[in-house]
Amino acid sequence: MTDRLVIVTQPEDGVVEAVLNRPDKLNAITPELMRAIADAQAEIAAMEGVSCVVLRGEGRAFCAGLDKSGFERMKSTGAGSLGMDIMDRTHGPANVAQNACWGWRMLNVPVVCALQGFALGGGFQICLGADIRIAAPGTRFSIMEMKWGLVPDMGGMAAMRHLARGDVIRKLTYTAEVFEADAAFDYGFVTEIAEDPLARARELAREIAGKSPSALRSAKELLNIADEEGGALEPLLAESRLQKALIGKPHQLEAIAAGMEGRPAKFA
């Protein structure tokens, strides 16, 4: 297996695969991985003969969320986990972190995501950018940012508002509850549950890729327009603005310290 953080395969019958490739770290998110996702999206967009993408994580998990080094950086410096100003719009309406989710949504072909093991925090938000999500039984999900004194800031709120009821999203956001594939399906976050989600995702991608390429691209554009009648910029900017106000402040630093030390947080 190559040491590339995101592997993009060559098109086969109109399908390419984008593979998160930090299996020893459960594909945990680093700044380098986020930038590699952006590079992979650009590479796929420039390819000829692509009608569908399979997005997956190598190894035991899709993505276990932010790498702990990101929390250590927040704790020691009060800076964001990416070492950048998250208010900067680097990818259309999104910053580079949000693009890890939103870039799949804006890609001009359908994206089918295969999920196994974990899709936690930022990993959950990344998968929400796909058009379709296929999960293995027992896959664990969480809107986990509240555990670390944060709010979801990788495009998740802009994406999930079209998938689940508002009260469900609020409960999961406020509690950082971990839930499994059956609940994710009931909530609307998962499209299908399959014993072998990658095999099913590949099967579905081949079926999609057999349709008219121009009609597929038009359909995705139309569906995105229908979903975003109010526009994506406002919720994406709000994510960044509210997150920036939390990062490095006493409550957030205490949440990180408590989480890293395995103790209850003590907020003044």
From TrEMBL:
Protein name listed in UniProt: Enoyl-CoA hydratase/carnithine racemase
Similarity remark: Belongs to the enoyl-CoA hydratase/isomerase family.
Pfam assignment, any one: ECH_1
PANTHER family attached to this UniProt entry: DELTA(3,5)-DELTA(2,4)-DIENOYL-COA ISOMERASE, MITOCHONDRIAL, ENOYL-COA HYDRATASE
GO biological process: fatty acid beta-oxidation
Organism per entry: Albimonas pacifica
Pathway membership: Lipid metabolism; fatty acid beta-oxidation
NCBIfam families linked: PRK07509.1 (NF005699)
A GO molecular-function descriptor: isomerase activity
Keywords assigned by UniProt, alphabetized: Fatty acid metabolism, Isomerase, Lipid metabolism
Signal peptide (residue range): none
Keyword Phosphoprotein attributed: no
Lipid metabolism in keyword set: yes
